[in-house]
Specification:
15 strands; alpha/beta; 4-stranded mixed β-sheet; disordered N terminus; 5-stranded mixed β-sheet; 413 residues; single chain
Length: 413
């Protein structure tokens, strides 16, 4: 009876709105212009219900700095109300018993029926909803400046050879063909697309199944050979550049293209650019029909009773179809719910929604290694190390493939 009363009280807290809600302290790494604009959608929705938003931004596109800040807060016994999280990191916090229970709102609103199982794998632990999925990003995109593409011949690349021809033409035209930021997670994002371009089965064998033969074999040598080729198209100042600054290079026409997840689209939109007219969005050549994804979610940490109402209100707002549409239109991603219409989305957004559905239906929807949805953090970090060393010329392709297989084997323990 006590459990029933507690569950009822939590549900009533959700419905209580402003009368019950107080404040949410939100730790996140959405600090670029497009990301901040998208997050403001959620902030305003909560504030309209009387929930005060206490912002805790920690810059760093991959979230590593945010996770360091989070560990310090949790260790001190004062976790934030909600924290942006990815994939296996969410499960790691759940295993430590640090996350709360969202089942009251999830059951009431039928999350099990509207949120894909691929996302539930990370959003639930031991039968409990522990986080609220905000979106689905896919990582195997290329964003191309339309004017620079036209100057390079105008042909949208459909194969690896096509891509090389366009990059060569852009280089001849005197611009930086590949706008890139030299950070390990950015190089791993490109590597996601390169590996997937050599076959969906190969990607699964290497990054989902962690098959040593796939990790160290001839196809992986070819993947590293392609990475070495791409390295020849970046500018000399790429090291340490944040991803959104690389996006700005493409927006301004100083760079020809960027290989980046669809959060990059938010930067183009924030700059007033339109898909088809100012920029072109394509899947990494050779990956058509397959999608590597990551899903931003808000982990809800165990907090005092005085903060639970606001926390549950936030979770409910995140999963509302209205918010899912409004947020993802701005962010560049697609909704975490399957029942949100694509009406408000631009052509790239509609393509993203359709691609996701097709990939899920055909068994070609894979968690992104680069973004913590293919394997746990120890393995992801081992991959990062080898990929960035090879990209910076420390390893030749054959040595890199061997190092990758060895590093993953060691990380598995």
């Amino acid at each position: 009876m006590r459990k029933l009363l507690a569950t009822t009280a939590m549900t009533l807290a959700i419905l209580g709105g402003a009368a019950q809600a107080a404040e949410v302290e939100v730790l996140h790494w959405w600090t670029s212009g497009g990301e901040a604009a998208a997050l403001d959608v959620l902030k305003k929705k909560l504030e309209s219900q009387g929930v005060t938003w206490k912002d805790m931004p920690v810059a760093g596109g991959g979230g590593e700095a945010a996770m360091t800040a989070l560990r310090a807060r949790v260790t001190s016994g004062n976790p934030p109300t909600a924290v942006q999280g990815l994939g296996f990191d969410i499960q790691d916090w759940a295993k430590q018993g640090a996350l709360g229970d969202l089942n009251a709102v999830a059951s009431k609103e039928g999350w099990d029926k509207t949120i894909p199982e691929a996302l539930q794998k990370f959003a639930k632990y031991d039968g409990k909803w522990i986080s609220a999925p905000v979106n689905v990003h896919s990582t195997n995109w290329i964003w191309i400046n339309k004017a620079q593409l036209d100057k390079a011949g105008g042909k949208i690349p459909a194969t690896w050879d096509d891509l090389v021809k366009v990059l060569d033409a852009m280089k001849a035209n005197g611009i930086t063909p590949l706008a890139h930021g030299g950070q390990a997670w950015q190089e791993a994002t490109i590597f996601d697309g390169v590996v997937l371009s050599l076959g969906a089965d190969f990607y699964k064998a290497a990054f989902i199944d962690l098959d040593p033969k796939a990790l160290g074999g001839d196809k992986m040598i070819e993947a590293f050979t392609r990475m070495a080729k791409l390295r020849t198209y970046v500018d000399k100042d790429f090291s340490g550049r944040d991803w959104n600054l690389a996006s700005a290079m493409v927006i301004e026409g100083k760079g020809g293209m960027q290989m980046m997840g669809d959060w990059a689209k938010g930067e183009f939109l924030k700059a007033g650019k339109k898909p088809g007219a100012d920029f072109v969005c394509i899947r990494f050549p050779g990956t058509q029909g397959a999608v590597t994804f990551n899903s931003d979610q808000f982990m809800m940490f165990k907090v005092g009773a005085d903060k639970q109402a606001a926390q549950l209100t936030m979770a409910s707002d995140i999963e509302s179809p209205e918010f899912q549409s409004a947020f993802n239109v701005v962010k560049g991603s697609v909704p975490a719910r399957t029942d949100v219409p694509d009406t408000a989305f631009d052509d790239c957004g509609k393509k993203g929604i359709a691609d996701l559905a097709d990939a899920a239906k055909n068994g070609k929807l894979f968690g992104s290694m680069a973004h913590g949805h293919a394997a746990p953090a120890a393995i992801k970090n081992a991959v990062y190390d080898v990929v960035t060393r090879q990209f910076n010329g420390e390893l030749d392709p054959k040595a890199a493939a061997k190092a990758l297989a060895d590093a993953v084997a060691a990380a598995k323990g």
